[in-house]
Amino acid sequence: MQRFDCSDEAERAAGLDAAVAAVGRGELVVLPTDTLYGLGADAFDSAAVATLLAAKGRGRDMPVPVLIGAWRTLDGLIDRVTPQVRDLIQAFWPGGLTVVVRHVPSLRWDLGDARGTVAIRMPLHPVAIELLGRTGPMAVSSANISGQPPAATADNAVAQLGGAAEVYLDGGRCVAATPSTIVDCTGDVPVVLRAGAISLDALREVLPLIREPASS
């Protein structure tokens, strides 16, 4: 296990190099984001994603979201960027919004039992963006054991995951320390699946018809 202090320029550079190499080998890395720390792997390496799920004690019934480092990446991953999706990501990316969309059927990945959909986010964090720019899309879930508190610091992540991750990129305490808001955009009307960093009021300023689940 290697840990790098990303507040130091030299360590940050070395840490990013180590993380890129680890992802390329199918290993797991912990990275800071604007919401919480994430446990990540190459999104297109099904064995690495399976290792990620096992490290968290999480089943395939909870598919792993994907983080991307550039808006244009989205066009190659999903069937169609609808006007609703475009409006949401223009307003809230990079940032604390995850959108659930239908992915291109030909993509060779296995993120869990996602039934043709994928949850995608572009984080607002320089270390995460730089890493994603070098690795491409990463499968990233919160850096904690399933059912335990999410990690707002690298220390929190180390305490829970230990040697399950090869590289820890320490970007300090996550300012928001709040999970992203998840919006399902697969239907005619977007639905908020999880409240989080982006409020419902803020979402409705962009898409007035967005709604919460019927059970809420």
UniProtKB/TrEMBL annotation:
The keyword ATP-binding applies. It comes from the Bacteria. It is found in: Cytoplasm. Residues 7-85 form the Carrier domain. Pfam families: Sua5_yciO_yrdC. Its main location: cytoplasm. It catalyses: L-threonine + hydrogencarbonate + ATP = L-threonylcarbamoyladenylate + diphosphate + H2O. Signal peptide: none annotated. Its EC number is 2.7.7.87. It is an enzyme of class 2 (transferase). Keywords: ATP-binding, Cytoplasm, Nucleotide-binding, Nucleotidyltransferase, Transferase, tRNA processing. Residues 13-198 form the YrdC-like domain. One of its GO terms (molecular function) is L-threonylcarbamoyladenylate synthase. Belongs to the SUA5 family. This is L-threonylcarbamoyladenylate synthase. It comes from Frankia umida.
